[in-house]
Write a structure and sequence with these properties.
single chain; about 375 residues; alpha+beta; 9 helices; 19 strands; flat
Length: about 375
């Protein structure tokens, strides 16, 4: 996947939140402030200040492309993003508020797109990654699922070797099953054995289905009966902490309880040994921290019921991935393909974004951007 893009740099944490209503409230508070108070709430950086102009994000009509200080416009509709590993949150899609928005990624964001994110373990998401994550590799270089982001000639080469059609998603599934972090980045061995290829696809497809939680239009995967987590006691008011009892497999959010929560889900860690469930909970209570200041202190007054539903889905995802971890760790690609002359390394142009010229984009001050 030669075309890779660095992660979005938001520059100010308040433009993203687990709750879309909180973002609208933050927008109202910012636009209702004046003078130095607006500047303080905005949190200016060298890249973005209230007097900085910016183009509309591709695919989104900006509330205004005038300088924020002159014409903020109405609040844009928040969009779903991947903020942290396995943590789907919301973002205000206004480039005037984001230090580095990566417009090239927004141009190829649609229902056909998937993004591979290089953390110590590869993550795949249908949402735009917008957090402190690794490099982002889109599956397709153009909208509509056009032009796969692979070395030119790779798919025909693999199809000939394995005597079957090979799709872009097939290669992504193989990467999930066989890829491993290495000294030169994420390394993907290509097998010379058609049987190992088919085994890797089967494993990778299960991994992909779990990470995407089923995907658009598909039922999310579930744990078998007896292992499915349920709300045993509803979360009331604001839970003061998150605790886990391994003996009863119970996750407690204050007085609220969810069980059964398999130990594999509770212990699931990413990036520096951080438990996913603890990081998820911390993100949803951050606005209640006594040190939270400005717009970041604006959040829900009560625990949203939607968050409990999200928690159940996250527990299921982590438990299923923990179940698959031993099989993935034991998977080997077998004998490897010899060096593919003319295919690898990919040409230099494949490492750059493709031109997307089928739509106009509004530039700063209402002018149309030239792409």
């Amino acid at each position: 996947m030669p075309w890779a893009v660095g992660g979005l740099r938001l520059g100010r944490a308040w433009v993203a939140a687990p709750d879309p209503a909180a973002l609208r409230a933050r927008w109202a508070a910012l636009t209702g402030a004046e003078g130095s108070e607006r500047d303080r709430l905005f949190r200016p950086t060298r890249t973005r200040t209230p007097t900085t102009g910016a183009a509309a994000l591709p695919g989104h009509r900006s509330p205004s492309t005038a300088r924020f200080a002159d014409a903020p416009g109405p609040c844009p509709d928040p969009v779903r993003v991947l903020r942290d590993p396995f943590d789907e949150q919301w973002l205000l899609p206004d480039q005037r508020l984001i230090d580095t928005a990566r417009p090239e990624l927004w141009r190829v964001l649609d229902e056909h797109q998937l993004f591979a994110v290089e953390t110590p373990e590869l993550l795949v998401t249908a949402h735009l990654p917008a957090g402190r994550l690794g490099r982002i590799r889109p599956l397709h270089r153009r909208p509509g699922g056009a032009e796969p982001n692979f070395a030119p000639g790779l798919l025909p080469l693999l199809g000939e070797r394995y005597d079957c059609p090979v799709t872009p998603q097939d290669v992504l599934c193989w990467i999930l099953a066989a890829g491993r972090p290495g000294p030169r980045g994420y390394e993907v061995p290509l097998t010379a054995d058609p049987g190992r290829w088919r085994a890797g696809l089967e494993l990778g497809h299960r991994l992909l289905t779990v990470q995407l939680r089923g995907g658009p239009g598909a039922e999310p995967p579930r744990l078998p009966g007896g292992r499915r987590p349920y709300v045993r006691s509803a979360v009331q008011a604001w839970p003061e902490g998150l605790t886990y009892d391994a003996e009863s497999e119970t996750l407690s959010l204050g007085a609220g309880t969810v069980s059964p929560v398999p130990p594999g889900a509770w212990e699931y860690e990413v990036q520096g040994g951080t438990r996913v469930l603890e990081a998820w909970f911390a993100a949803r209570t951050a606005h209640r921290d006594p040190q939270a200041d400005g717009l970041e202190a604006i959040g829900p007054a009560e625990w949203p019921q939607a968050w409990t539903s999200e928690l159940l889905a996250l527990v299921t995802t982590l438990a299923l991935l923990a179940d698959l971890a031993p099989e993935r760790a034991a998977f080997t690609p077998g004998p490897l393909l010899p060096a593919a002359a003319g295919v690898l390394p990919p040409p230099r142009w494949a490492r750059r974004p493709a031109s997307v010229l089928d739509h106009q984009e509004e530039g700063p001050g209402g002018q149309f951007a030239l792409l």
